Amino acid sequence: MTDPSTPPQAGQPFPAFALPDAQGHLHTLADYAGKYVVLYVYPKDDTPGCTKEACDFRDSAGLKAHGAAILGVSADDAGSHARFAERYSLPFPLLTDDGAAFLRQVGSYGTKNMYGKVTEGIKRQTFLIAPDGTLVKAWLAVKVEGHADQVAAAIEKHRAQENA
User: Fold this and answer.
1) Pairing of the two strands 117-122 and 26-28
2) What digits encode the pLDDT tens for the residues 83-110?
3) What is the pTM of this model?
4) H/E run at residue 114
5) Domains of the chain, earliest start first
6) Pair 14, 134: CB distance under 8 Å
7) Among 9, 10, 63, 108, which is least packed by CB within 10 angstroms?
């Protein structure tokens, strides 16, 4: 098993990325300058936990109210992402990290423990990135239930601190 890279730290610039969506369009962090970005990493399209998480982000009134850009990232291919997004009417891009190079860079790929079994793979994590490209907060061990609301609350808190 390999150790993951160190996750980005709050207050530091988030690592640059250029990842394709299901239609092959490249998305970079610079594309979302001026907006909060919710970059959520999930293990696999169309599995129960990943489906619930995607639908919760889709339905989050708080994230919509803040105008946050939501980006899902996994190592699944474009066809899998297209089917998943269509099946659940996901209005945000699902990005493919073929080979998981970016996921390794941000510490989202590596050794994990699932139900007592140690495996290597993609970890369910979320990164909230400020409009200036710095990391606001990282959730490195996401529990799906209520997570979208936690992210919306973190945006609210960050905005209040910025305006204080």
Assistant:
1) unpaired
2) 999 999 999 999 999 999 999 999 999 8
3) 0.93
4) strand 109-114
5) 18-162 (3.40.30.10)
6) yes
7) 9
Write the single-letter amino acid at 164: A
The burial of 17, by beta-carbon neighbours within 10 Å (0-12 exposed, 13-18 middle, 19 or more buried), is given as buried
Alpha-carbon separation of residue 144 from 1, 6, 33, 56, 91 (angstroms): 25, 23, 27, 8, 19
Is 50 part of the annotated catalytic residue set? yes
Per-residue pLDDT tens for 27-75?
999 999 999 999 999 999 999 999 999 999 999 999 999 999 999 999 9
- Residues 37, 50, 69, 71: which is the catalytic one? 50
How does 36-52 read in b/e, with b if 16+ C-beta sit within 10 Å? bbbbbbbbebeeeebbe
Tokens representing 89 are 């009417």
Tokens of 78: 């474009």
